[in-house]
Backbone:
C-alpha cells in the first residue's frame, strides 16, 4: 500500500497545492486509500498495470474535483430572528449587496480597464458565469475570455 501511495505522491501533491488548503494532501491521500480498498479489479476491462494506473490516476483527479469548493448560487435562507433591527427596517444592505457595490466600485475606479474586461469580470465574479458560458454569449473562444480576465486582473493588481 505504501509503495502505491509513494508512486502517486507527485500527483497527490500537485492537486493538493491547487486546492490551497492545509489538509488537502491528507484528504486526497485518504480518498486515494479508500479508492484502492473499494477498487474491484474484476470490473476493469483489462487486468494490465496500465489500466490500473490509469484508473487510480483518474480517481485522484476525481477526488480533487470533489474537494473543490462549490459555487453557491443561492444564498441560504435567513430567519427573522437572525436579522438585526436595522436590517429589518431596510437601513443596512445585506452583505451580498455590499459586496456587489464594492466590486462595482473597484471596477469603476480602475481607469485602465476596457469595457470588455469590465464585462468579463462582472459576469465571472458577480453572476457566476464560467469562461465557456461567456465565450458562447460573446461569440469568441474560451481562451480569449481567459486572456481578457487575466489581463484585467493584472491591471487591477497594478492599480491597487
Residues:
Amino acid at each position: 500500500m505504501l509503495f502505491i501511495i509513494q508512486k502517486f505522491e507527485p500527483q497527490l501533491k500537485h492537486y493538493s497545492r491547487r486546492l490551497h488548503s492545509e489538509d488537502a494532501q491528507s484528504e486526497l491521500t485518504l480518498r486515494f486509500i479508500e479508492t484502492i480498498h473499494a477498487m474491484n479489479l474484476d470490473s476493469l476491462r483489462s487486468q494490465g498495470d496500465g489500466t490500473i494506473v490509469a484508473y487510480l490516476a483518474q480517481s485522484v483527479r476525481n477526488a480533487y474535483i470533489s474537494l473543490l469548493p462549490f459555487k453557491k448560487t443561492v444564498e441560504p435562507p435567513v430567519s427573522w430572528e437572525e436579522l438585526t433591527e436595522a436590517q429589518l427596517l431596510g437601513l443596512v444592505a445585506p452583505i451580498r449587496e455590499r459586496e456587489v457595490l464594492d466590486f462595482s466600485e473597484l471596477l469603476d475606479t480602475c481607469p485602465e480597464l476596457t469595457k470588455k474586461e469590465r464585462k468579463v469580470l462582472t459576469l465571472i465574479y458577480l453572476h457566476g458565469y464560467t469562461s465557456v458560458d461567456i465565450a458562447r454569449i460573446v461569440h469568441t473562444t474560451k481562451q480569449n475570455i481567459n486572456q481578457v480576465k487575466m489581463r484585467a486582473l493584472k491591471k487591477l493588481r497594478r492599480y491597487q
